[in-house]
Write a structure and sequence with these properties.
Radius of gyration: 24 Å
Largest sheet: 4 strands, antiparallel
Strand order of the largest sheet: 1-2-3-6
Number of helices: 10
Oligomer: single chain
Distance between the termini: 42 Å
Shape: flat
Structural class: alpha+beta
Length: about 400
Amino acid sequence: MNQQNYDYLNRFIGDLSFKGHSAQLYSEMMAGEKNFKLCAHKTLGGEHMRYELHFDKSTEQDYYFFNRYTAIRHKHINIRHAEVGDVNTGELEARMDKLNWNALQYKKEPAEDGIAEDVGAILRDLAALTGTPQADQLRTRLEAKYFLGTSYEDAMAHPGTAKDLFTVRQSFPVYHKRADQQPVSQTIDPFEAYHMLCGRPVEKFMVTSKGEQQYPWLQLDFGKKDAYNNYEVTRYGPGYGFDLSKVLERFPFEELKDRDARDRLESSMKQGKTPLVTAMVDDVLQEFYISPNIERKTLHIYNTDHKPIKHEIIKTGRSQSTGSGQPSGQGEATSETVAPSTPEGAKPTTSAPGEPVQLDKKQGQSNTNRQNTGANQTSNRKSHQHKPGH
């Protein structure tokens, strides 16, 4: 094993907020397989996030490349419990919730001792949930909530259906500092990946295929997929005309009165979060969540129940009718009519998150001009371990 390569990769994935994998990385590299992956888990926004870090061995030298990772968002699953035959699904979930399924290894016939006995009883109760649409739905939801992404996927009745309904995934390229010290694009970190999988945009430093340095906004297009089964990414470059600071100026949020608070607000939104802001409505200081609506060059605004709010409420400070014959309460968050017109030649582009990088058809590996070995493979990004907000 190349010790220098290991030291670099171990440090790099830690800086990317994937800590605690030193021993597993060492073991996999010692095994010498041509490729392997490490799995990481985080809870963000009350949802389970799973990450698969892909490593590929050079065909010519004793070192590994880490050029991409896959982020899988497990959506929040609501379960309406019921008595189905002899199974109380509420009590069943309580038992399932006590176990760390990520740490357990699936066995078709678990031994009758300790935790294995509890697992066996749970599997038997799940298998009894069958025969009616209600029972099948309860089983699918319980298994999806606790088994997806674990070895217990093998025990699921309908893993494909559960994945389609309750997970969304995307592969993101990883960028390393070039040997010639030329700037490279920033890697989307695991927190930003979560926000993108929730449909929100992030702003990142990017170097285009022509060498231009930009800070475009990146947003997943859930209506389109590329040849590698990734969602296409819409890039809103500087020419598109979205200026977050100027957009915020159109709203009387209290946080905009303080320079430091405003800077924190903008930084949070650029990371994909939906920060909490305040505004006077009906003479009461009320709280709202906001996020960029880049396509229409405005904001999405939500109340604390995450219901969309019309912009007129914030701008007028009144939740009652504005006299237009339409109530000005809850409605589309994009109710403000800002023409999404774009100057010619400044339309958003659709690409993979790392548009400058051409992806290898077999592996999805990036083929940029960079050194991915040992000490030469130093990070171009700052490690910023922010806590994910709403």
